[in-house]
Design a protein that fits this description.
With 127 residues, this protein is of the alpha+beta class. It is built from five helices and three strands, in the order H-E-E-H-H-H-E-H. It has a three-stranded antiparallel β-sheet with strand order 1-2-3. The protein is elongated.
Length: 127
């Protein structure tokens, strides 16, 4: 059974391309208080003729990210739903076949601009 499955997957992987989306940055909201959280994300998308559609796929990723709360992105179930949403949106919006989505890096930062400004105001800068 494993040999049959492997023989079916190998031709698909040979024709599949990869697209690396490194260090995408955006903002999502926290569910508990609605405050913004900065997200830095690196992905690898794998599929047929995927390299030609980088701009469309960046739009798909940004759209999918906007559909999630910050807390949801931290869970394994949330990450799985995020990957599934990217695959579905790419096909639905642009007709792009994405076979696999790999998350290389996902970093959430809650230091918003306002918090940074508060810290700067509290401590005078000495040169």
């Amino acid at each position: 059974m494993k040999k049959i499955l492997l023989s079916l997957l190998v031709p698909l992987l040979l024709f599949a391309g990869q697209l690396h989306l490194d260090r995408l940055e955006t903002t999502v909201l926290q569910k508990k208080n609605g405050e913004p959280v900065n997200v830095e994300l690196s992905l690898v998308l794998q599929g047929r003729d995927i390299e030609r559609n980088e701009i469309q796929l960046m739009d798909v990723v940004q759209t999918a990210l906007g559909s999630f709360w910050a807390e949801t992105l931290l869970t394994s179930q949330g990450k799985a739903k995020f990957k599934k949403m990217i695959i579905e949106l790419a096909d639905k919006q642009y007709g792009i076949e994405v076979d696999f989505v790999y998350i290389q890096n996902l970093r959430l930062r809650t230091d918003t601009l306002e918090k940074c400004l508060e810290l700067i105001r509290q401590k005078p800068v000495k040169f």
